[in-house]
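Sample A.
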Amino acid sequence: MPVISKIVLQKHNKERYSIFTDSGAGEVYAFSVDEDVLIKYQLKKGMELDESAVADMLFQDDIRKAYNAAVHYLSHRMRSEGEVREYLQKKEISEPVIQEAVDKLYQFNFLNDEEFALAFVRTQMNTTDKGPEVVKMDLKQKGLSGTIIERALKEYPLDVQVEKAVQLGRKYAAKNQKDSSRILKQKLEQLLIRKGYPFQVISIAMEDVTVEKQEEFEMDALIYQGEKLCRKHSKLSGAEFTQKIKQGLYQKGFPMDMIERFMEDLDG
């Protein structure tokens, strides 16, 4: 049975120790352990080691290394249990070791999915234009349970959702005045859906966002789009040219009476 012949503090990691043994054929390096494992098993020179004891030490040492890696990962910001598990899996750490490390993280309050979810929802609500459905999807991707997600989303009340949707809608409408009123409304609704706002919120928000332009501004948008179409189809002539322009403007949401006025001015 090998006997510990020497214990040496590692130069590049002051919390780990190299263990050397001698079984009669000369001293050899055996393994290394964290300081906590060294103390737990009371390793010292002259101590005999059997295979089962060494296997248990190395398992505990793997847990300690996984735990330390996770603590370092968590030092940058709060993370969910799912994120920590994924991080450790990428380091090719075995599932039994990950489970022990995660249990230890909960024991010392480094992990708390409830608090993480609440903080995440508040941060997304206050610093982004994401609606609750996108926030919910983000939390699912981070491995949070449905129950925890639903409780956390109560931090994102309806009135705040509407306020943010209105702000987003007004900003978008102001930047897209060259679209027809009908297309602008469609695009805005699609934007709010992509951003994760439910239909109830979109319906309320659309009442506060001006998408129906006065006729003179609608005509300005039509002229802008019409001139673009004219340049696009400049190689055409006659009825084919007229048809392409009319068709293009209609598809862009402009009313036919305004299209006819534009075509009359074009012919004139």
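Sample B.
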Amino acid sequence: METEYDDFRASVRSLAADKIAPYAADVDEKERFPEEAWAALRAADLPGLPYDEKLGGSGADLLSQVIAVEEVAAACGSSALVLLVNWAGTSTVVSHGSDELKSLIVPKVASGSAGAAWCMTEPTVGSDLSGIRTSATRQGGDWVLNGQKRFISNAPWAEWYAVLARSGENDFGVFMVHRDDTGVSFGPHEKKMGMRGSPTADVILDDCRIPAVRVVADPMQGYQYINGELNVSRALIAAQALGIAQGAFNAAVAYTSEREQFGQPLARFQMLRGMVADLAVKVSSARALLYEAVALIVAGDPRARARISMAKLLCSDNAMAVTTDAVQLYGGYGFTREYPVERMMRDVKITQIYEGTNQIQRLVIAKDVYARQVRS
């Protein structure tokens, strides 16, 4: 399955090694936007991967997107997050939006000249999207939005924000808000443990008025639209976790091959070899499950929802274990910022939390297990 993608993987890996990795530590240390990485991604046309050629993209399949996120994340988790959040922020527009709305938003995002984000989480709402309080009220031909969205990746850098808002008592819509719309403001930059190069802030909507053309399809069906995109977005988050794990694994193998103790390389010690073997299994098994889930998503197989929850769970849990053990393999040096593994350990923690916590993924998986038992 992977062989036909080898050249693409090699090209993204080379770009990440040459033009992203050298700046990753500085991006993390200064908590700044990864400008060099974004310029390199734009030059390689990677922001346009998932979009139709008619909209300025390259029409690549989901596995290509997953591979791109993996390879970028292996060099810099923050850079990978900026990229994949752009895709998530435009996903409902691509899937359900009018041609006019697609033409308004997608070409600039595909070129990398504009960023996107999606806004679901609120101060009192995380996994339970049905508790959203942000409101959207129809006024003439416009919609007026009021509310506050929290922990929004790519804010305030992004131009476009896909806002999930309550449009009726039990109905929700997806509304495309522009950064320069009247009534839009942003909270302070979040000080985070990891992914410090990914801008994150509240998006505040105070009587924000947008024209009806910026509503994604039916303003009462937004919850269903967002739910329909979760398979793909969870695949991308799983890929991000997997990429960070691969990056930490590669760094630990290189370090233990070169570092000597007691007159021989660390790689010669049996207990250390056992740790490395376990890490190799964690990375490879996570990749196998993710790619299987991606194939099910592409095929439209109903098993995809539970399988991608399994993949998101396994990739992020394994990545947390891999990065933690990579720090251990570096010894005291792993605890310093001189080497990348401590950053990778901090970065990867969030992959167990966002896009549905791993506790939520376990509930999805268990629900599917019992449902299949009943059907059989």
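B remarks: The first strand starts at residue 116 and ends at 119. The CA atoms of residues 305 and 327 lie 33 Å apart.
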